[in-house]
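As a representative case, the lines below give one protein's residues and fold tokens.
***
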Amino acid sequence: MNLGNDTVKNKSGKTAAIIGATGMIGKYLQEALYKDDRFDTVRLIVRRPMEKPHPKAEVKLVDFNDAESVKLALEDVNIVFSSIGTTQKNVKGDKTLYRRIDLEIPERVAKYAHEAGAQAFAMVSSVGADASSRNFYLRLKGESENAVIVSGIPSIHIMRPSMLLGHRDEQRPGEGFLQSATKAVSGLLFGSWKKYRAIHGRTVAQAMINAALSGKQGVHWYHWEEMQ
């Protein structure tokens, strides 16, 4: 009896989910995961419709305010990669909306991923992230880290890059100049200043995958040197 290609799948690899799949790091994650034979499925959990970009991909359109929508998208996921984030420009200075995207979405996804049995969670934060910081951005990133940590997922990996190098579909004013300037001075940063060196988004994405597959339990932070 022919049950059809979509009914029976002989899979031995892992299922990864990405939130923030359409951003710079998200696209580098996709690129690497599609090539990685340890993953059979790469689930893109998105807020807006998109074309299926690869045979390994599953596109799951969700409403992050709807618990059931998120829970269904996370069924059978082994590892979650979070590279979601916004900018002041995109939210037009609305800090409540900024928090909803950068904090509440990863917090909710981590909670439901734990309930679904996910074993690892790798996320992009920022160098200097600190929930007690006076800086809104650094405080928000620190709060986001803490929210994921308390989710209960047994293996959590937090990337803290400084300036990200790489291609963005979205043009950010002055970022090209800033990337070039930061790249030029990065080689002059040593010792405790190394963590402020610029790093390519592709390097961060691969570090996330390596960390998530390392089997290390507990919470681990990664700066420039650890991500190389």
Remarks:
- The two ends are 50 Å apart (CA to CA).
- The first strand starts at residue 14 and ends at 19.
